[in-house]
């Protein structure tokens, strides 16, 4: 179980006709990558050649950005720890490249790239976050604060704690680059690692989302979350009718789900989460 200190993950969402039945069954919609708001997400960069020197420079740029973020004295401990881990991972990879542990040229040379693309496009991905109070995410994914944020427990021996299904996104400057020749010649473990790299990598511009992804084989379907829903947070503008529907449904079905709400912090462009 990677990062055991992360005990809860959150799903920002709109209210829909399936919302109530889904929370009762601890289920959510796992989307295919084609439905993501970032068209480059889960993409494969088709370049003939890239030298390890270019990769090295990109890693250095990422590290400079992470270190710049860490200089912010107002970061909370969780955020500081998160970006410290990212910076440390980059530093380890930098050393490996400097020590010649990777080949000098990473390139696409095989039409078998189609297999990789099809494998990724068919996946079902549940996008989650470590945060429940990010103003941008409330606006982008929870219908301009009219929606909800679902809190899910990340407990041992569940899909959300299983590294084969759920991992944090790695934020980078450049799309992942692979050699399809190495992919074709690699064993099954190596191929899984390639797919994992492509699915869990995202532009550094999205780092504020603190995203985790839970991945299964069949996309665009409702599946069990692999974790326990323990709270639902109302947005600043969640309609009173929606709030009443959720309250009544939870009470009627004796669901062990706590209701909370977001409020504007005094003299701040931010929100706080309190009990409803």
Describe this structure in words.
The structure is a single chain. This protein is of the alpha+beta class and about 280 residues long. It is about 35% helix and about 25% strand. It is built from eight helices and 14 strands. It has a five-stranded mixed β-sheet with strand order 1-6-12-13-14, covered by helices on one side. A three-stranded antiparallel β-sheet has the order 5-10-7, with no helix packed on it. Helix 8 (about 240-250) links the parallel strand 12 (about 230-235) and strand 13 (about 260-265). Helix 2 runs antiparallel to helix 3. The radius of gyration is 20 Å and the shape is globular. It starts with 7 loop residues before the first strand and ends with a strand. Residues about 105-110 have low confidence and may be disordered.
Jot down its keywords.
single chain; alpha+beta; 5-stranded mixed β-sheet; 3-stranded antiparallel β-sheet; 34% helix
